[in-house]
Task: structure prediction
Amino acid sequence: MDIGAFIAKQTVLFCPNGHGTFRSELLQSLVPKNCTFGFDFIVEVGFALFVHSRSNQEIMAALATKNVFLSEREVSYLGRKFIICLALAHRQSQPILKEYLADRGGYILHVDGTCEGDSPNLFCGLDGISELVLDAVKISSEKKDQLIPFFRGIKDRFGDPRALVHDMGKGILNAVAEVFPDTPDFICHFHFLRDIGKDLLLSDYTAFYKRLRKLKVRSTLKQRGRYLGQKINPEIHDIGRIDGIIQQGALHSIDFEPISDIIVYMLVQWVFEYPSQSSGYGFPFDRPHLDFYRRLQEVYQILGKFKDTGMDKKAKRPVILIYKVLAEFAENQRLNDLAKDLEVKSAVFAKLREAMRIALPEGKDGINDNDGCSDMKTIKKRVTVFRKWLPRNKHREKTYAGMITQIDKYWEKLFADPIPIQSPQGAVAVQPQRTNNILERFFRDEKRRGRKKTGTASLNRMLKSILANTPLVQNLKNQEYLEIILNGCSSLEERFLQIDAHLVQQEMARNTQNKDKILPAIKKMIKDVKFTEKISKLFCPC
Result:
């Protein structure tokens, strides 16, 4: 990059006695064999794409200011080459990485996958102690047969983990049992709670949402809210004065008449602020449609009080306008019955959340919440109390039979004792993280980068095109890992120079094969206007 574009004339020397050919070491240190762009370009584009989440167009524009002009295809090509070089450096550093993990007392293997639509499943294995990505693979599904080679590969390269943490997927459970039969195996508390909550609440929540949507209160209320909003003029209405009246908590009829439109408008907007009540955990921890219902009910009660006061008709006009919209909804017996059942079950689910001390309603960290300060013995004791309380009467025992079965089924995999390990600081006890949120956060960051780069919400295409080893980029944040893969080199450019160019080319060829691409010969045949007619004759030559 410091030279810019140049044409090199290289003198290749050869030995007449069969000792091979000799090329310019300086040129080889600048540019990979048979390539146009230097090692520094590979690293520059790789960091821009995968660390700084720049789009192809942004990278092209930044390089153009340095009088270097790349096409979008060249940016993508250099990005793939960066990942392949990094993966080869990771693979070649495996013995040192294994020693590094062993010196820290071993590793705790967290595994999880992510996919979207019909995209492949990007499945990752990560050490919960160092938070290093150990391996990643793209598979069509999380079935046992596809996961066993992945687990065996990690076992062969890094040895047996001290423990495993994962969700309750049947394929993962069966694959772990076969590859790591004697390794302590634990279920992620967050995934456990999420699955048990979905089983308990999903059918009721779906029925509740469908009923809510059928009543069409949301669209009608938004329309009326816009009508009230258009009547507000900031140059005429003193919003600061209204805030003062609200803070004082004293409103007289003389005060209400000129500001009734604004007060009611604010109540409507408050209803639509219901997503702010969610904590970022997703369903079933967050139930935004139920929050919307609660806010509607509260505003309905407030407007009912205003409506029954002795204020004049003009002041009451916006109150009645919104009250009538809410009345049909708030007094709908079917909706209220569904909400009541949902509230009861939600309270039971909240009781289990409290017992396990994870994804608590008052938490605001979303999946960043590991609640590492909770003692496992205390959690086990709380869950034991909850398990005994749940079937206290026949109705509860029948309603929550599925929850009871799930708790009993995974009981032994839920509560991990501290694992004694030998660390550089001496003998210590490591408590396996009781959630897989470390990987949830990792996938969330990957998706955020994908959305930032592509500008689209759907990640289906990104997950199809992304190289399986892309998650290794996250390891570059770890200075100790960087020193390991550099293997004495001063930079990644210098390290990539040490990698056999033939290996890189082989990996590039293997990873650029598009398995979804139609072969040219097949494409030619199916474009034939008489294609189906010819196929039919194969089965009915007459």
